[in-house]
Design brief:
Blueprint (H helix, E strand, L loop, with lengths): L1 E6 L3 H12 L4 E5 L24 H15 L2 E4 L2 E7 L2 E6 L2 E10 L20 E2 L2 H4 L7 E6 L4 H10 L3 E5 L4 E4 L6 E4 L2 E4 L2 E5 L5 H4 L5 E2 L2 E2 L12 E3 L10 H18 L5
Parallel strand pairs: 1-2, 1-6, 2-3, 6-16, 7-13, 8-9, 8-13
Antiparallel strand pairs: 4-5, 5-6, 10-11, 11-12, 14-15
Helix pairs in contact: 1-2, 1-6
């Protein structure tokens, strides 16, 4: 079991990883490919102290290198589910599940418009993790909204464990059901099903962590980076403006210190 898992490999997440390792914590960062981030596309960052004119790719490479040298484990993958348990968090990404004592959200701003019915039926037929929930639908029909590069692979996994899979490539989707998913309407055509797997590039934090409080589209966090879910901390753009690298790095440090205190390590 890891001391902390950090969701997101931008400045906030990598700063958190560096500080966590300095406090003697085991730390794993799970993040999408860095080249997909907005910062990676920046030709020049003019206001990061001490490194005038550095490019986005150069800064991310330096931060990742520092985290790796510090001993953090860096994994490229999409976190699609967090399952809180007694004193632990089970974090699903791809076909893998990791377990940790604490969780740091550094996801950036997730640009994800929800389908009608998606949030209301989350956990009642709507899922984001084929590995976590696939066996619940063995022998049943499921629709898979393929909105991410690895969606076809996850759909094939569902098929391999005995699900009757319908792949959907459209973004024009409505999820229907009263208390439980019964069908989807895709481009005007209704398809009866028992479950829907919505597979995007990223999952919004409040959908990722059950019960997580948000405000105006951002994770609600205290000055110590604590959220309303014990053991879950948040830093960087996901907690709100200003969306600046220097702010994210500082908040990542604070989140790691708070996670260290939470699991009982002095600092």
């Amino acid at each position: 079991m890891q001391d902390t898992i950090i969701v997101g490999g931008g400045p906030a997440g990598l700063s958190a990883a560096i500080t966590a390792r300095q406090r003697g914590m085991s730390a794993t960062v799970v993040s999408n490919d860095a080249s997909k981030s907005g910062l990676y596309k920046a030709r020049e960052i003019g206001n990061y102290p001490g490194l005038p004119g550095i490019s986005g790719p150069e800064l991310l490479d330096k931060l990742a290198g520092h985290a790796a040298i510090a001993g953090a484990t860096l994994i490229t993958g999409k976190v699609n589910a967090v399952l809180p348990a007694e004193g632990a968090f089970h974090v699903g990404f791809g076909a893998e599940i990791l377990t940790s004592k604490s969780l740091i959200l550094a996801t950036g701003v997730a640009q994800t418009g929800l389908f009608p019915g998606e949030e209301e039926l989350l956990g009642s037929g709507v899922s984001y993790c084929a590995t976590c929930d696939g066996m619940l639908y063995r022998g049943k029909r499921v629709c898979v909204a393929c909105l991410a590069p690895d969606a076809d692979e996850e759909a094939e996994y569902l098929s391999s464990i005995g699900c009757d899979v319908v792949k959907l490539k459209t973004k024009n989707l409505v999820i229907r059901g009263e208390g439980r998913v019964t069908s989807v309407v895709a481009d005007g055509d209704e398809i009866e099903c028992d479950g829907v797997f919505v597979l995007r590039r990223a999952v919004a934090p409040h959908l990722l962590v059950p019960g997580l409080e948000t405000e105006n589209g951002h994770v609600k966090a205290s000055a110590s980076a604590a959220t309303n879910v014990p053991g879950v901390f948040a830093a960087g753009d996901c907690v709100g403006a200003p969306y600046q690298v220097a702010k994210a790095v500082g908040e990542g440090l604070v989140a790691a210190l708070s996670a260290s205190e939470y699991i009982g390590r002095a600092y």
